[in-house]
Every structure is written in C-alpha cells, then in structure tokens.
C-alpha cells in the first residue's frame, strides 16, 4: 500500500470548536522552527505573556500557555490548587462541570455539586446556600461559557460569593476568552483556563492559563506534591517564568506557539471590546434568521452565549441527517448535542475569525435549504432577509 500526503478539504467550521483559523495564523505556524531555549524564542514567550495578560485583562505574573489542550488547562488548575481531602464546590450546568468533578476526585478532593438545569446559567443563590452548608470548602469551580449548552454564567457575582466564604475560584473560560467580556483582575478570579481553538481562532492544542497571587501562594505552600509532574506549576514556571534565564522543563510546541502569538496579536489589533461587540452583533443576526425560520434557542436571551448557539431541533427532523447533509453538500460543520442534550439541539459556533457575516449567511441559507427539502414549512429566503435587517 502506498500512502500519499494528506490534504484535508476546506471546511467552514461552525461547530463548538475548533473554529476557522485565520490565514495569518497558519502562515505564522509555517515559519522556521528554532530551539525552545533560543533567546529569540524566549523573547517571544515574554511577548506572549503580555498578550495573554491583555486577553485575560490581568496583571497576574503567573500567566502562560500550557503545552496541551484546554482539558490540560483544567487539570493544571485542579491538580495545583487541590490536595487530598480538600472540599471543592463545583457548579454543574452542563458537560464541563461534570469534567471538573472528575478532576477533583482524581486529586483526592471531595467535590460538592451545585446543579442547575442544562441550558441555564449557574444560580448564585444555590452556590451561596451550599457554601453556608459547607463552611470548610476551599475552592469554588464553575464554567463561564458552557460549551455543551450555550449558557453564560455571571462570573463576577459567583466569584464575589466564593470570596465572601474564603474560597479560591477556578473558572473555565475555554469558550469565552476573546468572545465574551472577561475581566480576570476586576472580577477577582483566582485561577482561569482557556483553549486556543475557540474565539482565539488558533489551532487546537494549547491552553492559556492565569493564576492570581493568592492562588500562586496556595501552590507554593502545598503540603503534598502535585500529583502530575508535567503540570506541576512549581516546575513549569522555571521555564515560563520571567527573565532571560529559563530552566528546561519540556520541549515546547514551538510552531504552535507561533500560531497562538499571532492569534493574540490579531486580538490586540482588533481590540478586545470590539471583538466582544463583533461576536454579539453576528449572534444577533444569526438569531434573527433562526427565529424567522420558526426555530428556537434553548437558552433564554439574557443568558445566551454569542459564540455558541444552541438551537432546538424541530420535531420530525433527524439530527444526523441535517448535520451530514450540511457537511457533504456545503462543506459546513455544526455540532451535535452532548449528554442529556444529544439529539435535541444543534450547537452552532460563531467564534473568532469564524464570527463574520459570510458564515452567518452561508449557514442560514444552507440550513434553510436542507430543512425545506426535508419537508419543514419554511419560506425560502426568510432567514437571510431577517439576518440582513440586523446588520
């Protein structure tokens, strides 16, 4: 058997991630590979730290990119801040709160769940009541932008409640960074992690993280070793720490970091607030088109994410048939529901470079055509007219 070079087709990525990658990022990743301890590369690492501080809106010294996907960013936060026997309050309103619970258990910690319906934001009152019942809790963890449902929770309020009860906070911002307002210092977040492949529009495989000084002190004064050698921040920061002298820890994914650097430069060029506004504007246009077709969102408007749209599948329409036809006939990918929402929703991403009018119009036209062909009662052209009216 003779295997030849792999050439993937060009797709329009409108699922829950990865998102469309800006050509400037792909070009950046094709640049010459240099050593991970080369002074030039170290200078780029220092620039990236500043760019990440801007994206997170923080001055945290302990801000860098984990050399692995967002799931490793999650694990970095949990394994460094939790020790065996620690009690952690975990707010779950979708799949990724469940993954937080798994991380806590593997650290030997004791997770206490605060559960809300899938498709709703985390209820601050439930968190407050749970903390009153567990005054010995040390950490509160929750998801800002729940990718499995499209719901956005009130980070500022949840962090305030946690701090009033003397808890550190771990916040998942994998889908929110660069797409929704996120202010780490102003809101007082202690540990935050994200991913490169969502609203930053880079390729998957990197996880930006940031830790407050309060969290860093907890890490420095641990009574037990961090269970993961690779993710132990007491070791990693010897490589990512400031200054020209770096201690070898691991071989960094050099070209991938070129890409993330370029993604963050693009975010800086656009301006963070303008990026947030663009995501919201395109979401509103998409929403107008969806509702004009007679479809509905599963998340109420005030809790809805602009970059991840959860749309209820109409009665009598097969989930897989629609997604397969969109991919095969239009080269367009959307996401299926997860967990208890499997088969009930489509997850439509408008993230980063992919949050643009072209993608909105292509998607609405393609979905309208497929649904009409499957017998749905939709007036041709109604969705695109509605979207255009928003812009």
From TrEMBL:
<keyword id="KW-0663">Pyridoxal phosphate</keyword>
<dbReference type="InterPro" id="IPR000192">
    <property type="entry name" value="Aminotrans_V_dom"/>
</dbReference>
<dbReference type="InterPro" id="IPR024169">
    <property type="entry name" value="SP_NH2Trfase/AEP_transaminase"/>
</dbReference>
<dbReference type="GO" id="GO:0008453">
    <property type="term" value="F:alanine-glyoxylate transaminase activity"/>
</dbReference>
<dbReference type="InterPro" id="IPR015424">
    <property type="entry name" value="PyrdxlP-dep_Trfase"/>
</dbReference>
<dbReference type="InterPro" id="IPR020578">
    <property type="entry name" value="Aminotrans_V_PyrdxlP_BS"/>
</dbReference>
<feature type="modified residue" description="N6-(pyridoxal phosphate)lysine">
    <location>
        <position position="198"/>
    </location>
</feature>
<dbReference type="GO" id="GO:0019265">
    <property type="term" value="P:glycine biosynthetic process, by transamination of glyoxylate"/>
</dbReference>
<dbReference type="InterPro" id="IPR015422">
    <property type="entry name" value="PyrdxlP-dep_Trfase_small"/>
</dbReference>
<protein>
    <submittedName>
        <fullName>Aminotransferase class V</fullName>
    </submittedName>
</protein>
<dbReference type="Pfam" id="PF00266">
    <property type="entry name" value="Aminotran_5"/>
</dbReference>
<feature type="binding site">
    <location>
        <position position="347"/>
    </location>
    <ligand>
        <name>substrate</name>
    </ligand>
</feature>
<keyword id="KW-0032">Aminotransferase</keyword>
<dbReference type="InterPro" id="IPR015421">
    <property type="entry name" value="PyrdxlP-dep_Trfase_major"/>
</dbReference>
<comment type="similarity">
    <text>Belongs to the class-V pyridoxal-phosphate-dependent aminotransferase family.</text>
</comment>
<feature type="domain" description="Aminotransferase class V">
    <location>
        <begin position="41"/>
        <end position="337"/>
    </location>
</feature>
<dbReference type="GO" id="GO:0004760">
    <property type="term" value="F:L-serine-pyruvate transaminase activity"/>
</dbReference>
<keyword id="KW-0808">Transferase</keyword>
